[in-house]
Amino acid sequence: MRKPIKSYLFVVTLLTVASVLLSACAAPATPAPTPIPPTAAPPTAAPTKPPTTAATAAQPTPAPTATATPKPTGAPLVVTSKELNIYAWSEYIPQELLDAFAKEYKVKVNYDTYASNEELMAKLQAGKTNYDVIIPSDYTVGILSAQQMLEPIDLDHMPNFANVDDQFKNASYDPGNKYSVPYQWGSVGIAVNTAKVTKPITKFADLWDPSFKGKLVVLDDEREIIGMALLVLGFDKNSTDPAQLDAAKKKLIELKPNIKLYDSDSPKTALLTGEAVAGVVWNGEASLAHQENDKIAYVLPAEGMGLWYDNMAVPKGAPHKDAAMAFINFVLRPDMSILITKAFPYSSVNKAALELLKTQDPDTYKSYMAYPATNPPADAVKNGKIVKDVGDATTLWDKVWTEVKGGS
Amino acid sequence: MLKTVRERPSLQGLVLISPTMFWLIAFLLVPSALIVVISFGARGSYGNVVYTFKLDNYVRLVNAEYGHILWDSTWIALLTTVACILAGYPLAYFIARSHPTRRSLFMFLILVPFWTNFLIRIYAWMIILRGEGVLNAVMTWLGLMNTSLGQWLFSQVQLYTPGAVLVGMVYEFLPFMILPLYTSLEKLDPSLLEAAADLGARPWRAFLRVTLPLSLPGIIAGSILVFIPAMGMFVVPDLMGGAKTVLVGNLIRNQFFTARDWPFGSAASMVLMALTLVVTLIYTRTFGFGEELVP
Amino acid sequence: MNERERTRPGRWLTLYAIAAYLYIYLPIFFLVLFSFNTSKFSVAMQGLTLRWYGDLFNDKAIWQATTNTLIVAITSTIFSTIVGTAAAIGLHRYNFRGKGFSEATLYIPVIIPEVVMGIALLAFFGQVGLTLGLPTIIIAHIAFSIPFVVLTVRARLQGMDRSVEEAAMDLGANEVVTFWRITLPLIMPGVLSGALLAFTLSLDDYIITLFTAGPGSTTLPLRVFSMLKQAVTPKVNALSSLWILVILVALLLSQRLQPRRG
Questions:
Q1: What was the pLDDT predicted at C159?
Q2: Residues of B in contact with C115 (CB under 8 A)
Q3: Cα–Cα nearest to C80, from A38, B79, B20, A258
Q4: Cβ of B36 under 8 Å from any chain C Cβ?
């Protein structure tokens, strides 16, 4: 063993020297993509076929005024690509939809999955991935677009964009829908098993009650949970103030005895087995739990429920851009969008699809409209708090989370 | 040229090892060098890497909080290793002593569950250890849950407790302990034990003085194969323990994902690797190195 | 080992072994049981159905993932076994410059945290411009399998008697023939164990595969883990059950076909 030790020291020294040298001639490329200037080429024209008539007068990017919602003008593009690579959450796009698209456009659809936005970003930041369509959440769109990692959306050839409910267009993280088109949205709220909890729960602060000792399930998500503590203390959910974050940390440490487990993946399980009687969960989880046990209610907290929006986007350099744009347009068709709403328990962005649901399946429509997890009332949405990228304070947030979980 | 290679043994050695070395240098050393470089960098505003040369990340690690995390991870890894030795030794002994034709079958049977999906296995354990799960049902049926002892026992391994984490960890790492142990024990010459018996040693004494020392290489090798990966393991503690603790694996993973602070994550990884190396070296220096890693 | 000299395992030991195997197979039993569950969530048995097996056969994505997993596992196992065996022989028999360095390098995949290796490869492939896909996954799997093969084969070599080889060479066989006819059969148990280990490690690998996979190259572990968010439906239980069934049948057959050793 003596020889390997010496050689190991040699290897380590070699690596350190190499790294010093390498960093001295600081390599500018990946995994730290320097901002690539956006390509000047107009994205409207398909590679070989001329655009269909109505689109001939299109400008490079749809040019709305700073606040007006963009208006698509043209018919969809003709697609020449033979393949489409989708990278999205698992169980997020119904197979029926994918098959229908594949059939209509004669395209082979590959569907890869990730389990978090950060996974998506890590992959994209490291280099060329060959994905055509991704479904990033709100703040992720902001981060990716700021780093010029998204293709502009070809709204001119996306007539179905008109089906998107106006309240979802022109979001703060992507004004003018330059880089993204809404896919689904939802909330983060309080799930309560009303059979086991008799006290009325109306706000996050209620969860600190000692009667919940060891009975809560909360998301394993630092932005939502630290954010919750900040809201309870009356601060901004996306605060970067170290003093406020420290206060939030202390508040969360007070909550710790009540927390039975952290679970972002399947918090409904704990609710269904009775290991937790209440918790902070995604609306989808609450919906699914409610389907199995209708005593599980979903409460939108007074301090402000969490709001999230998932969007379709096209990574820069996507090999099948035309198919990607066509796919996005396809998804927005009411008969396709309705498949999404029927299959998954989140909230729809597509007003045309909801209209279709009303006529096609009134029972599902009624329960969709009645349940706050799928259809929160307008004032709750107004009061909703979205997660925003906190930039450099991200490391501070992470430190707080580590200290909350790790200490004691 | 073949003639030259034939005549020079050292060249033969080099030829044999060159494909391996090429692969490892290209796809392990060079990528690792990249990580070392990144560990001296800084985090850009969007979570990208800014290449500079700063020791900040390493300095940041010198902190009571991270020391605590390291301690927790080491402790779990240690417990798992010891538990695996205690649980695995008798089983390895059993297999080594079984009929020769059955031995490989028994060994194989230990590995078969590991060809299923890791997550599903853990989920199955969650079903068993839940508050109102299988174990509870069985213990209730046996009347054990009426006793305070039974209740206490259950509360120690119930899901979302450290006990449950240990059950899961041992389950996942047991084969890595059993394989090398089995190799050692299988090579044991039974005539040595006969000789010990002839000299008047009782079975227990023979075990302590003959079998145990001779199987030491297997114990060492098994310990290394369990302890090192256990240090970095976080999925089992997260699922079985309810994600209530932050271990080194969680910390590193968070840096590369949630915090998008690759430089800090890289620095933490370097420290973890250095620590693992030190512990392994101390261990093998003291006890010798186990040649029997597998049959 | 002479049959007469083998001391049979005692009663207590056998009992313990049975208990140990029960412990090992207990979750497998439930895994299989819940593949027949009517409820989508593996929380409590609500009824029996074959529905998930039917769903499984229609799920193209899972079969694609299974195919990918097998391709990666088989390819990486074959390659790493061949290369690793050669390296083991080289390290065992010869002394050459850089031997210490080689041995040290072989330790790295053992001590490196998986996340780090994954990220390192991701960054590396990005820098080099290699597109992510099945080839990059295979490259990564070979990289982490080789050391295990080397260690395994080397352990076996250490127990081997060289005199047989030397006898063969004295009788006129050259290195290649000696290796093929003498050495290889002798170390075969070690080689097979190494291959088995490499295969097992590759089948269930998640983290490293996560970072090196590209479009259309999802493997089974990736697919299952990403199903976590919604629900890991019993479809996956069904798949695992079928898998186990196939393996156990193959095992039993091989036992039957094996000649009884006196």
A1: 66
A2: 232, 249, 252-253, 256, 265, 269
A3: B20
A4: no
Given an 8 Å threshold on Cβ–Cβ distance, is A15 in contact with B33?
A: yes
User: pLDDT tens, B75-105?
Assistant: 999 999 999 999 999 999 999 888 888 888 8
Q: Where are the domains of chain C?
A: 62-257
Phi, psi of A281 (to 5 degrees): -140, 170
How many Å apart are CA B29 and CA B25, to the nearest integer?
5
Kindly identify which residue of chain A lies nearest to residue C127, measuring between CA atoms: A30
Alpha-carbon dihedral sign for residues A37, A40, A46, A52: positive
CA distance C88 to C186: 14
Q: B30 to chain A: nearest residue by CA?
A: A15
Q: List, for residues A65-97, the tens digit of each pLDDT value.
A: 344 455 555 566 778 889 999 999 877 898 899
Residue B152 sits at the chain C interface (C-beta within 8 Å): no
Please choose, from the candidates A401, C225, A276, A119, the residue with its C-alpha nearest in 3D space to the C-alpha of residue B244.
A401
Across the interface, whether the CB atoms of A274 and B131 are under 8 A apart is answered yes
Residue C200 — very low, low, confident or very high, per pLDDT cuts 50/70/90? Answer: confident
Q: Which of the residue ranges A3-17, A381-395, B160-174, B196-210 would you say has the lowest mean pLDDT?
A: A3-17
Q: How far apart are CA B215 and CA B213, in angstroms?
A: 5
- Closest by Cβ to C204, choosing from B20, B114, B294: B114
H or E element, residue A187 = strand A180-193
Are the C-beta atoms of residues A182 and A313 closer than 8 Å to each other?
no
3-state secondary structure of B13: helix
ipTM reported for the complex, 2 dp: 0.81
Architecture of domain B69-293: Orthogonal Bundle (1.10)
**pLDDT of C126-152, one tens digit each?**
888 888 889 999 999 999 999 888 887
**SS3 helix, strand, coil % of chain B, rounded to 5?**
80, 0, 20
* Shortest CA distance from C81: residue in chain B: B20
Q: How confident is the model at residue C43 (pLDDT cuts 50, 70, 90)?
A: low
* Confidence (pTM): 0.80
> Given pLDDT bands bounded at 50, 70 and 90, which one contains residue C81?
very high
On chain A, the residues whose CB falls within 8 A of the CB of C215 are 85, 87, 110, 112, 129-131
Q: Summarize pLDDT for A220-249 with one digit per residue, the tens.
A: 988 999 999 999 999 999 999 999 999 999
Counting every residue, how long is chain B? 295
The CATH superfamily holding the domain C62-257 is MetI-like (1.10.3720.10)
Token pair of A326 as six digits? 């066509």
HSE-up (13 A, CA, CB side) for residue A89: 21
CB contact under 8 A, C247 and B20: no
Shortest Cα distance, chain A CAs vs residue B238, angstroms? 8
Q: Measure in Å the smallest separation between the Cα of A111 and chain C Cα atoms.
A: 7
Res A22: pLDDT = 39
Bigger pLDDT: A22 or B194? B194
Task: Identify from C56, C75, C112 which residue to disrupt to test chain B contact, counting B C-beta atoms within 10 A and taking the largest count.
Answer: C112
Averaged pLDDT, B286-290: 60
Taking a contact as any Cβ pair under 8 Å apart, which residues of chain C between 44 and 73 contact chain B? none
- Which candidate, B155, B117, B111, B164, places its Cα nearest to that of B136? B155
The residue length of chain A stands at 408
Chain A closest-CA separation from residue C129 CA (Å):
7
Contact flag C125-A127 (C-beta cutoff 8 Å)? yes
User: Is C237 strand, coil or helix?
Assistant: helix
Q: Is the pLDDT of residue C19 over 80?
A: yes
Distance CA A202, CA A187 (A): 15
Q: From CA A375, how far away is CA C199, in angstroms rounded?
A: 49
Closest residue on chain C to B294 (Cα): C152
Torsion (CA) A202, A208, A214, A220 in degrees, nearest 10: 80
